[in-house]
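FAQ

Q: What does a record look like?
A: Structure on top, sequence underneath. For example:
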């Protein structure tokens, strides 16, 4: 059979290599123009690299190092005006944020011009992404003109080296990852309960003692014991300088974090006199929030921290110093005569104002040295330090409040940019929990809608946070940051109007190959199964809807739990009875992801529910209030599961409309008890019924619980069988966390993920 003429013509075009090569750059550039007549500039070991301006050596070295590592050769660098080759230069571009550049690939020349040296460097980053993703291929760069500039000035990535310690070589690699994404801040979290990681010459015990712990919890908190192995490490000041200089050559600013007044166990172990009780303390071996904090009533604590900062600040040219401020329990201050004396002497209202005093006193000192403090959003409590920049992590609220008070803010909400969260519900390694897909990170908008245009200017950018409780090695860190870092880079760099998930998704396929070139590990969860649960239209049970996160994925399922057969999934499951449903995602006929979900169906499942007291912003559960009647209980356990709805302080009060009057005899609540994380069982639950949803009659209270092995429990309220259409369930919050417990004095959390009416 003869080929139709147009197919023949197409194949000729293929042979002639005239097809316009796909430009696949992350973050997406502002303007990409490809000429109608395609062609390529070929880079070889003979191509000269010409620096037309001074100060461009960093860009030349980065390009050469990359070419050598990935493709095996370097280019000769020249400042003589030779024709042809790759030219680096400056051109004015009048963009308010440093980093604008122009990249032109033509037949005889590849030209990169930056608004400044940073811009040239970013032009080089784009060039690297025009190179083939196959090793050994000829380095053909497609003709293109790219004009590009950053959207936000602060494009950050954080790393916690306290929970786990990472060698200098990896920290440098991590900075490369930042630079390869045109990001520009490395927030280095250097001190923690589990380890103090920066050498301080005046206080050598900080690292000699505080840099090491005598063991580490095994598995997910609260864990299955302790490995009993001494673990630790620290960076010398010489190494810190080396890393800061390395970062500067990549236009990455390093911001150190020295935590205070909380997360101080390691420092207190080294110097017990800095705590309220005088110790003894220990470098912590488990995760969590600890009561061992710096004493706020002791002037020598402030002298100590000032001495520490006097050594830290000169190592970091950044105008910022991060002083933490998050998760500081007030328990030890409440029982400390010195702290109470400080409260009295300064007319402070309570321990929250004492924390504010602490931060403001340190701010004054740091401002005196010409630097600005950054603190986590808890520094808003008890009064914000006058010049502080706020990092909003517990949702966006802190950032909004700070911007409204005319403070600069960095957005880093757990919901979207905590890169320690699971990327898939089918995570097979232990993570802290949560569920933040690459698509969710991609969807993040750093400027909250609540801000006016003037307030929005205070949002300098956003940052991904990487807390390393469950990242023992560098390969796991890479697995957690990739590909979400690539998504975040586009949030921070690309014009808002150009952000497009379908477009990003295509480029991400190429980026996966680039991770391969870099030798970086990454999560394959992009090829994942996404499940959602909605009420069934007929009011009977729920709909279980499966989607592939990738267009390339085909969903199949076994018709029964025992079946080894797989059939294609075509339509949502209507779940009306207790069931376990499995599904598998096939890409190119190979399984890449699977999911099992158990449903426990009862009279409340899928019914209309209203909840009187809103949950905490960051604990809305999986699908909001409906999650309480979606037939699903968290199986993983622990606070990390996104099934939980959480209230800190308030009771839960929910009303379920059973649709019609039904006979009922008990109500079960699926709840969590994890006191180390401030989550307590309710004091009791009480059930009311009503025929009209207005007048209520109590059926009784219950507080008996049956515990499960993952910190979850079922609390049952039994009552005499009755008939009702409306059921109200009130779960009484535990109240104030008792003395001696983590978080003592604070309001306890109440976690519920399912209400079953039987
Ligand atoms: C934080 O995640 N504790 C800032
Ligand atoms: Zn004290």
């Amino acid at each position: 059979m003869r080929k139709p003429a147009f197919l023949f013509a197409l194949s000729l075009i293929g042979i002639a290599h005239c097809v316009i090569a796909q430009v696949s750059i992350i973050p997406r550039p502002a303007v990409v123009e490809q000429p109608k007549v395609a062609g390529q500039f070929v880079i070889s070991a003979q191509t000269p690299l010409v620096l037309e301006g001074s100060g461009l050596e960093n860009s030349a070295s980065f390009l050469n190092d990359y070419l050598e590592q990935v493709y095996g050769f370097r280019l000769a660098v020249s400042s003589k005006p030779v024709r042809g080759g790759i030219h680096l230069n400056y051109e004015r571009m009048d963009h308010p944020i440093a980093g604008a550049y122009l990249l032109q690939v033509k037949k005889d020349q590849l030209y990169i011009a930056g608004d400044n040296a940073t811009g040239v460097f970013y032009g080089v980053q784009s060039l690297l992404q025009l190179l083939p993703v196959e090793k050994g291929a000829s380095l053909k760069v497609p003709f293109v003109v790219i004009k590009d500039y950053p959207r936000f000035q602060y494009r950050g990535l954080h790393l916690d080296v306290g929970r786990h310690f990472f060698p200098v070589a990896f920290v440098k690699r991590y900075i490369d990852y930042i630079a390869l994404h045109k990001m520009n801040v490395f927030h280095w979290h250097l001190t923690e309960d589990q380890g103090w990681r920066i050498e301080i010459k005046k206080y050598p015990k900080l690292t000699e003692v505080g840099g090491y712990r005598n063991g580490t919890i095994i598995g997910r908190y609260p864990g299955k014991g302790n490995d009993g192995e001494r673990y630790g490490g620290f960076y010398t000041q010489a190494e810190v300088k080396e890393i800061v200089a390395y970062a500067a050559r990549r236009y990455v600013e390093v911001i150190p974090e020295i935590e205070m007044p909380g997360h101080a166990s390691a420092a207190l172990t080294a110097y017990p006199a800095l705590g309220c009780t005088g110790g003894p303390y220990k470098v912590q071996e488990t995760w969590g929030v600890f009561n061992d904090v710096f004493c706020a009533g002791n002037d020598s604590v402030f002298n100590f921290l000032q001495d520490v900062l006097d050594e830290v600040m000169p190592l970091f040219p950044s105008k910022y110093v991060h002083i933490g401020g998050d998760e500081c329990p007030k328990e030890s201050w409440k029982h400390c005569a010195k702290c109470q004396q400080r409260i009295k002497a300064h007319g402070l209202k309570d321990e929250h104002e004492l924390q504010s005093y602490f931060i403001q006193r340190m701010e004054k000192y740091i401002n005196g040295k010409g630097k600005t403090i950054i603190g986590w959003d808890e520094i808003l409590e008890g009064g914000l330090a006058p010049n502080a920049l706020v990092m909003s992590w517990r949702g966006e609220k802190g950032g909004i409040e700070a911007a409204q008070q005319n403070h600069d803010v960095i957005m880093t909400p757990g919901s979207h940019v905590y890169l320690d969260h699971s990327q898939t519900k089918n995570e097979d390694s232990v993570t802290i929990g949560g569920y933040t897909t690459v698509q969710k990170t991609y969807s993040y908008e750093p400027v909250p809608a609540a801000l006016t245009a003037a307030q929005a200017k205070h949002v300098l950018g956003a940052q991904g946070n990487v807390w390393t409780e469950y990242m023992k090695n560098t390969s796991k860190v890479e697995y957690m940051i990739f590909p979400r870092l690539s998504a975040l880079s586009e949030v921070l760099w690309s014009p808002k109007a150009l952000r497009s998930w379908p477009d990003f998704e295509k480029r991400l396929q190429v980026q996966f190959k680039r991770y391969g070139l870099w030798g970086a590990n990454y999560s394959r969860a992009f090829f994942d199964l996404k499940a959602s649960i909605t009420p069934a239209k007929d009011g009977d049970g729920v709909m279980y809807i499966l989607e592939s996160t990738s267009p390339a994925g085909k969903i199949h399922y076994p018709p029964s739990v025992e079946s080894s057969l797989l059939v294609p999934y075509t339509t949502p499951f209507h779940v009306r009875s207790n069931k376990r449903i499995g599904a598998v995602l096939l890409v190119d006929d190979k399984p890449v992801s699977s999911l099992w979900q158990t449903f426990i169906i009862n009279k409340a499942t899928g019914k209309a529910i209203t909840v009187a007291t809103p949950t905490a912003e960051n604990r809305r559960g999986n699908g909001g209030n409906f999650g309480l009647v979606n037939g699903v209980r968290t199986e993983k356990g622990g606070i990390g599961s996104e099934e939980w709805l959480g209230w800190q302080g308030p009771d839960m009060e929910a009303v379920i409309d059973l649709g019609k009057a039904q006979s009922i005899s008990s109500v079960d609540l699926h709840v969590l008890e994890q006191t180390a994380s401030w989550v307590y069982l309710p004091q009791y639950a009480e059930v009311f019924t009503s025929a009209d949803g207005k007048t209520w009659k109590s059926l009784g209270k219950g507080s008996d619980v049956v515990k499960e092995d993952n910190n979850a429990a079922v609390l049952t309220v039994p009552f005499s069988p009755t008939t009702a259409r409306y059921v109200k369930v009130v779960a009484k919050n535990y109240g104030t966390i008792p003395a001696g417990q983590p978080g003592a004095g604070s309001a306890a959390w109440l976690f519920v993920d399912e209400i079953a009416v039987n």
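Q: Is there anything notable about this one?
A: The first helix runs from residue 5 to 15.
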